[in-house]
Amino acid sequence: MELKEKLVSSFMAFENTVDVDSSVHDIxxxxxxxxxxxxxxxxxxxxxxxxxxxxxxxxxxxxxxxxNEALEYKDIKKYFIHDIDAYKIIFVDGKYSxxxxxTTHDGIDVCLMSSALTKPKYKVIIDNYFNKIxxxxxxxxxxxxxxxxxxxxxxxxxxVVEKPIQIIHFSTGNEAALMLQPRNLIVxxxxxxxxxxxxxxxxxxxxxxxxxxxxxxxxxxxxxxYYKIQNDKQSASLIDNTFINQKxxxxxxxxxxxxxGKLTRNNLNFYQNGERIDSTMKGITIIGDKQHVDxxxxxxxxxxxxxxxxxxxxxxxxxxxxxxxxxVVVEKxxxxxxxxxxxxxxLVSDKATINTKPQLEIFADxxxxxxxxxxxxxxxxxMFYLRSRGIPEKEARGLLMFAFSNNVLDSVKIPEIxxxxxxxxxxxxxxxxxxxx
Amino acid sequence: xxxxxxxxxSVEDKPILRGINLDVKPGEVHAIMGPNGxxxxxxxxxxxxxxxxxxxxxxxxxxxxxxxELSAEERAHKGIFLSFxxxxxxxxxxxxxxxxxxxxxxxxxxxxxxxxxxQMLKLIREKAxxxxxxxxxxxxxxxxxxxxxxxxxxxxxxxxxxxxxLAILDETDxxxxxxxxxxxxxxxxxxKSKDNAVVVITHYQRLLDHIxxxxxxxxxxxxxVKSGTAELAHExxxxxxxxxxxxxxx
Lengths: 437, 250
Fold this sequence. Notes:
The complex is a heterodimer of chains A (about 425) and B (about 250).
Chain A: H1 3-17, H2 24-38, H3 54-57, H4 73-76, E1 87-92, E2 95-96, E3 109-112, H5 113-118, H6 123-129, H7 138-145, E4 151-155, E5 165-171, E6 178-180, E7 183-188, E8 193-202, E9 208-218, E10 223-230, E11 236-246, E12 251-258, E13 263-272, E14 278-287, E15 292-301, E16 307-316, E17 321-330, E18 338-347, E19 353-362, E20 368-376, H8 380-387, H9 393-406, H10 415-429
Helix pairs in contact in A: 2-7, 8-9, 9-10
Chain B: E1 2-11, E2 14-24, E3 29-33, H1 40-48, E4 53-62, E5 65-66, H2 72-77, E6 80-83, E7 90-94, H3 95-109, H4 117-130, H5 135-138, E8 141-142, H6 148-162, E9 166-170, H7 178-191, E10 197-201, H8 206-210, E11 215-220, E12 223-228, H9 230-239, H10 242-249
Parallel strand pairs in B: 3-10, 3-11, 6-9, 9-10
Antiparallel strand pairs in B: 1-2, 1-4, 4-5, 7-8, 11-12
Helix pairs in contact in B: 3-6, 6-7
């Protein structure tokens, strides 16, 4: 049976396991219809021209995993940013793991979507925010239809959350092939600050496909700092659908570090509903053989005096492929918009490919929008310069690539993340960076 | 120390060096002069091991060892240093980090441990002072946005840090004002000893007023056509290169 049919027919069984009386019930039903009508995206769709899910969808994915195996913290510690005090929301094969997690209800809610969807005390937030900005495309709809578990974070107004929140999804290989559909909702009220780290990690070679949806609401003057660490196994693929709705003077920043996985598609969407909003998205992609990373971004400038900054760097080796499709829409009312977009790439191998496409739709006349993309090789004269100082070829290459991607880290505010990412980059490039940053 | 015998080199099948012979002994300063396009920079790059140049014939011997099979980094490890005519800008790597990497990679090649951090700092401070380089300058990205003079001073700073056996200064005087020229020349002179040697490649006499050569060679059409003492440089300054060309073509 094809995966689509399997999902459609599983839906009834799924609905019976969750609360049919909840207000989310109708949303799920509608979403299922939307998925049924659209199915999975295919290459004929403009937005999916360079990314094919075909071979991945051939796997016979389990949609409802069996009971998971317990994981010991010591065995998976390395996937955490473990040298900082943090809240943790940890899932194993799609199920919440209480012994690995550290949630809270102390002034803020850092807990589970499954509770939020069922308990009355969360009803107002769910009614106001759940599925309000996720798009109705096939994949997001599929996630909405099966939405049951994930992270639920609500920061009421005037709270600066000191500890970052780590959301990690592990898969144990308990199933021959597993499909996960985490659903996250993050609501940050007026003047509040939050820092979030998200990671998806497979622990075996069994295929995993994650189709995740995250809705983030940054209300007035809120600051949201979000880090996505994508360094999964070659057998794991991720479709990350993230939607961020911003109110006036809010600041939302998303860093995406894509170093691993078979196929990674990041659909990152910002909607600016207010004035003096700042949206920043930065990415470093370093991939090698048979890996594919696709950044599909949207910034929707709806109101005046807002800014957006995009800076994506990519290093592509061997048979890897990269896609960058950055869309910036500036509505007629959004005067004085300042939108910046850059996508710079290095192709290390002749076999690597990058498709980069800036897409600007500007309806206002008093705006500043700049964009630029470059694709190049390493500068041979720089290589000779480094080598003539005694730095061997491999290290010189690594140092240049490191320097190329490095400045994206300037905006990373958590030192532990910065040093972790620095190490991952060095590891990925096979160099020993013999100095501190 | 450096012995070049009958060196022929080409780039993209175009012959540039057509039989160079040069013998540099420890403690000596050699100047290589010549008109534009005579092959001066090519000679410097070939000695340093730039791969775009094909050595067709002849040999470059450093302390009895043929360099032919050695990569640029291996030559650096053996003590060859090239001060670039056009130092390359490397955004994202600070001067300090670049030097730390270069020194520790060289030490690694010699089977030594990394230089202890405090020793490294001391060395950096000492050499920065010698070249009158500001501390802030060291945390800037390598050569990025540096003025012509800053780039050259930074080259000699790197030379001071690495302490090479054989330093080749390729047009180090170009783009320098008189103060920078004095600082750079002073740095080179302080680094000179009876154990190392310097090859100064220049178009003009003025650097040679500060770094006084033991020998001056004139390179023309890929060959050394005349050699002499410091006196020859003065003669070239006064008379230009035309008489040399006439002599050669006669």
